[in-house]
Design goal:
oxidoreductase, oxidoreductase activity, FAD-dep_OxRdtase, six-stranded mixed beta sheet, alpha/beta, 425 residues, FAD/NAD(P)-binding domain, single chain, 12 helices, nine-stranded mixed beta sheet
Length: 425
């Protein structure tokens, strides 16, 4: 550490009172771990707990698969494909200049070299992801994480399967462990009778977990409140005003409160407040859709159809079916065509799933960055921090994000794992 670094750390003032803007997994995990370090927290959300991307996603805890969203395979989608309403990756033909700028930078990062650089940055934080969930569970957050008795990536053909096998090789080369075995379609059906005869090859993944994300995040919120935290929902944060010794948070109900520090964990809306504090990276909503259906045989763990980009998760006696990457405004209405596209992609691959008896149709805005890396850490203000931009991995990486950010905020030292994720990069 340099002399200047030593001086900065020695003069660091530990905050006593922190506001966390955003009541999703990332925001609430940050609040919880700040409490663990003796900090008084207030969590503020314009709607409610898990109201954004945290509620209806697939709920996978799969750090072995937490890879950068910009990847070479994305470039294989032609313009005609991404403009199709049935495409797994959809861009509206009326895309704004801001969205087109984001997509241009996203495409520039979808090369093998840049994917590897981003993957190298994710590996250290991915390795600690499940440990952070275990810490929460042992400390009294009574929300279940389920061991996946089986976790299958299923394909029609052996040729289709080669894409994920190659990606797993690249993941291993980056130093990230993931245990797997290629199996036949018949073997896959023996493990999961819910798979149809269309499935001709599969990969079985080991050591994976999953949760009911909405239920888990609600229990986490209850724990924050039980430990003395305040939870203010139904009010938007209109402004964050950085002062000489504190920072004021102004909400839509006219309340202005002072805090020692503020964490911006607003997901796809992160740029709205963070831009004023030097955060120039665009955070774009990559909207995912899901719904729940009855199925004759509920799988023992998640089932993934990578070629169709459809993810299925057992939740109670129903199956949550999720998919789509729709680049639109985060507040845009649910588009039924996206639901129809997921249904038609999943229908021939699942056995005895009543895809016409759908409930809980949902859309949520994943916060995506052009380089596929989250924004975690200090902004240009020593009192304002950012935590967001995790793309598809906000559930998996939410607790470890909160744990490491709380460490940074209370010690004045940036953990090595967070160095690549500077919001000011």
């Amino acid at each position: 550490m340099t002399a200047a670094g030593s001086f900065a750390q020695s003069t660091h003032v530990v905050p006593d009172k922190v506001a966390v803007v955003g009541a999703g997994m990332v925001g609430l995990a940050t609040a919880w771990f700040l409490q663990e370090r003796g900090i008084e927290v207030t969590v503020i959300d314009r709607e409610g707990v898990a109201a954004g991307a945290s509620w209806g996603n697939a709920g996978w805890l799969t750090p072995g698969l937490a890879t950068p969203l910009p990847e070479p395979a994305v470039l294989k989608y032609g313009v005609r494909a991404v403009l199709s309403p049935s495409s797994p990756v959809y861009v509206p033909p009326t895309a704004s200049p801001r969205l087109l700028s984001f997509l241009t930078r996203f495409a520039r990062n979808s090369t093998a070299g840049r994917w590897k650089t981003a993957m190298d940055a994710l590996v250290p934080i991915n390795r600690q992801a499940l440990t952070a969930f275990d810490f929460l569970g042992k400390a009294g957050v009574e929300a279940e994480t389920y061991e996946a008795k089986s976790f299958l990536a299923a394909y029609r053909t052996v040729e289709e399967r080669s894409v994920l096998l190659e990606e797993i090789e690249q993941i291993h080369a980056a130093g990230q462990d993931i245990e797997f075995e290629p199996i036949t379609g018949d073997d896959a059906r023996e493990i999961e009778p819910s798979l149809s005869d269309e499935i001709g090859a599969a990969i079985r993944l080991h050591g994976q977990r999953f949760i009911n994300p909405g239920a888990y995040v609600q229990v986490l919120a209850d724990s924050v409140v039980a430990r003395g935290g305040r939870l203010r929902t139904g009010v938007a944060v209109n402004d964050v005003v950085d002062g000489i010794r504190d920072v004021r948070v102004v909400t839509s109900d006219g309340v202005s409160e002072s805090y020692d520090a503020v964490v911006l964990a607003t997901g796809a809306w992160l740029g709205k407040l963070a831009r004023e504090f030097g955060v120039r990276t665009v955070v774009q909503a990559g909207r995912g859709y899901s719904f729940s259906v009855p199925i004759a045989h509920v799988p023992a763990g998640p089932v993934y159809f990578p070629a169709q980009r459809v993810a299925c998760t057992p939740l109670g006696d129903r199956l949550r079916v999720a998919g789509m990457m729709e680049f639109r405004k985060p507040d845009a209405k649910l588009d039924p065509r996206r639901i129809d596209a997921i249904v038609e992609a999943a229908r021939p691959l699942l056995r005895d799933a009543d895809l016409d008896a759908r409930t809980f149709e949902w859309v949520g805005p994943r916060p995506c960055t052009p380089d596929g890396l989250p924004l975690i850490g200090a902004t240009s203000s020593p009192r304002v921090f950012a935590a967001g931009g995790h793309g598809m991995w906000g559930i998996t990486l939410g607790p470890i994000t909160g744990q490491l950010l709380a460490e940074q905020m209370t010690t004045g030292r940036t953990p090595d794992e967070l160095a690549p994720f500077s919001p000011l990069r």
